[in-house]
Design goal:
Blueprint lengths: L25 H14 L11 H8 L3 H13 L3 E4 L3 E4 L17 H26 L2 H19 L5 H13 L4 H27 L1 H19 L3 H21 L2 H15 L6 H29 L1
Helix pairs in contact: 1-3, 2-3, 4-6, 4-7, 4-8, 4-9, 5-6, 5-8, 6-7, 7-8, 7-9, 7-10, 7-11, 8-9, 10-11
Amino acid sequence: MKRQSPKESKRGATFSPRPLTGNKTLADQVTDALTSKIRGNEFSNSQLPSELAMAEGFGVSRTVIREAISRLKAEGLIDTRQGRGAVIRGDGLDVPFRIDFDSADLLGSLLHIIELRRGLDSEIAFLAASRRKRDQMAAIRRALTDIDHASKAGRDAATEDLAFHLSIAQATGNPIFLELLRFLNQFLHIAIRVTRANEGQRVEYSEQTRVEHMAITGAIERQDPEAAATAAKIHMINAAVRIKSADAEFWTVELRHLARSLDGVLTTDREKQTRLATRRLISGTKTLFSGEKRKSRV
C-alpha cells in the first residue's frame, strides 16, 4: 500500500505551502496563507485539506490549524460540515471588507486611506448639503463645537473629529455611508490622532483644519452641494499634505506613545485591530524614513 505523503490531504489534494516566516503569530501566518490560497482557487473540490495534512504541511500544531479555520469561518470564506471538514464557500456574499496596513510602506498606507476618503467625503458632503434637515444641521454644528472644546481642553480631538464626519454622513439619509465610515473609523482614528498630534507641533496646521471644517459646515448649512463637495475634497488633500509633513522623529515618538496609551485599554475586536494596526505602523517607521532619506541623497 502506497504511503501517503505528509503534505498530501487524505482527500487526495496535494498541499505544499510555503514555509512560515515573519513576525506574526503562527495562527496569523497560517490564516494569511490559507486565505491567499482560497482566493487563488488553489484547492481542488472547493475543500481544504484535512487538519492533519495542513498541520504537517505548515509544520504547526493542529491547535494552530483549528484557530486559523475558526478565523476563516468568521471571515465567511469557509463552512465546516460534519463528515466533510472545511468547505470553501463560493458565494462570498458575507465576506467582510478588510483594510490592512502595509508595514513596508506605512506612509503610503495612510495616504491610501486619505485618498479613499477624498472621494467618499466629497460625495457625502454633496449629499448632506442636498438633503440635510434642520435637526441634522444642528447635530453637525454641535459636532464642530465639540472639536473646539476638546482641542482647548488639550485633547487630540480625534474622537470628536470622527464624530463630526459621522454627523455629516448621517445627514445624507443613506445608512450605507454611515456604516462605511463607522467601519473605516478603526483606521481613521489612527490617522487622525497622528495628524492632529502633528498639528499640535504646528499651530498653523491646527487652524487650517478648523477653517476647513467650518467651510464644509457652512456649505452644508447654505445647502450648496458643489461648495460642500469641493470643501471636503480640499480638506482631504490638505490632510495628505499634513501627514507627509511629519518628520521621522515625530512619527517614531508619536506612534510609540499612541501604542502605549492603547495597551491595557482596548478590549473589543475592533479596538484590538486598531492596536495591531498601530503597532505595525510603528514597526516600519524607521525603515520607511531611512529609505526616504537614502533616496533623497541619490
